[in-house]
Amino acid sequence: MDCRETRMLLTAFHDGELSDADRVRVEEHLRDCRTCAALRADLARADQAAGVPDPGPAYWDRFNARVMDRVEREADGPKVAVLRPKGGWMRQQLRYLVPAAAAAALVVVVVRYGGMNPGAPAPTGPPAASEPAAPEPAVPRNAKAEPEPGAMKKAERPAVARIAPPPGFADERFAAATREERDRLADRSLSAGKADASRESAAAPAAPSVPSPPPMTLRGAPAGSPPVTAADGMPSGMQTERKKMAGAAARMAEQQVAAKAKSDSGTVGVEDPSASPCELARTLADQERFRKAEAAQRACLAQDRSAPAQEKGLVFLAELLDRQERFAEADAVIADVDRRFPKSRPLDLYRQRRPEVRKHLE
Amino acid sequence: MGADLEEEMDERLAQLAAGGDRGAFEALVTRHRRAVYRLCWSASGNAADADDAAQETFVRVYRSLPSYDPGRPFGPWLRKIAWNCGLSARRDGTAGVSRVAEGDAPEAVDPAPGPEEAAAGSEERRRVADAMADLPAELRMVMVLRAVEGLSYAEIALAAGIPAGTVMSRLSRARSRLLAALEGGS
């Protein structure tokens, strides 16, 4: 086969649409002709560029509930206004839904009891409802409202966050098996009762992790302290206690996630409606908490031993190691992927990005 | 929605959903929402419209289930609805203007990175995303269905209502333009 004929067939070859006979002939030519091989590589590059940005886990957490709400409204009566203002919802949600549940719990605590503390941050928006519990309460990193005295100038801030692809975006770039399988993997934690649970927890975001205030009487308050009502606030000592409790609850939730992941390991396909370490890993990575993300990702890998999950998951683990500057360990993971999944596309893609990842650590 | 539903074929789920089984319908939503979103994005070229269109797609699917024939494959039927919703979302308003809108990627989650922060890598990503958003919708569609969804020419032809030969020529054009965008910045 000559170059002319190869190039006529190259697109179909690349897309796996050639007959076996033609495919073999093109392959033979590509082995000998670097020019044509480069053209083939270009096709692959174009495909890699064709990703659609994924809106991220917080978006998907709410997606089903939004559809089902509309469907139920339709079922209830004639088609009433089902169109909502364009564009606004998602942009707003993306800003506010990212903080995980424990962060939401803290926000609730602060909102409820922070009235007595002028320095307390104002509520920034609806708390995330159904992220797996994050390890520790944290002020949402998107809470940009608060001023940052002496904050680094924009340019000086670590660029990693910007460079790190969001969880979904990374997914877009990973082409394991079939698209549908990957979607299913991405949705593991959201299946079964998760969507329902998220809807319920949306109504009472703090319920699982923040116990309701214990009964207290004013007699217990120190003399001279301002009167408080059970609904409005509590003495400052109690505030501290409350925050500790919220923190402890969040830590317990984290331990449960880890224990659950451990107990599920090896049982492929078991759905865990309460939390998915895989999703937790993405969320934590997105928050630049790479060490914790790594732990979650290892639990994720233990939980799902299917080949596509391992291939993709190990590459992500390598990235998490790189981001902690543990390059030798990352190299070892990459070598492992190379050995187990020759010509891995997720790995190829990460190799292309890797210099960029490492560059931004310097 | 139980584990058994997750294992059901689309067509069976659609049949159950048509009979009023909300769990079956939600199983379909969960299974296809990402693909639907991507298709809506490729029709509209931006995240906000893709969101509207993806939601609208499933509402329309629900509405149309009574007329769905379980003897025909569900996927192409769904894709057709999604594509139409994506196109009409684009026509509805400001679609296509915002292109890679603030709701699209990392920047949306962590808003307002200044231009000075844009490192070479993210610049390239943005350039490519822009190139993708700049493609005419019909080229973007075949590109997404092939390179992202992994559909065959025949499946794409069915979804797009075009001959398989046209699929290949559109793919070639789409790839050329994306490559030109990649080269353009280097």
- DSSP strand content of chain A: under 5%
**Unreliable segments of chain A (pLDDT under 50, ≥5 consecutive)?**
78-88, 91-101, 114-177, 191-240, 260-273
For the termini of chain B, the CA-CA separation is 50 Å
- Give the overall shape of chain A: globular
Distance between the termini of chain A: 49 Å
Instruction: Please report the total strand number of chain A as a whole number.
Output: 0
Jot down its keywords.
heterodimer, A: 362 residues, mainly alpha, 16 helices, globular, B: 186 residues, 10 helices
How is the topology of this model organized?
The complex is a heterodimer of chains A (362) and B (186).
Chain A: H1 3-14, H2 20-32, H3 34-48, H4 57-76, H5 88-96, H6 101-113, H7 160-163, H8 167-173, H9 179-186, H10 194-203, H11 236-264, H12 277-286, H13 290-303, H14 307-323, H15 327-340, H16 345-359
Helix pairs in contact in A: 1-2, 1-3, 2-3, 4-10, 6-11, 11-13, 12-13, 13-14, 14-15, 14-16
Chain B: H1 3-7, H2 10-18, H3 22-44, H4 47-64, H5 74-92, H6 106-109, H7 120-134, H8 137-148, H9 153-160, H10 164-184
Helix pairs in contact in B: 2-3, 3-4, 3-5, 3-8, 4-5, 5-9, 7-10, 8-10, 9-10
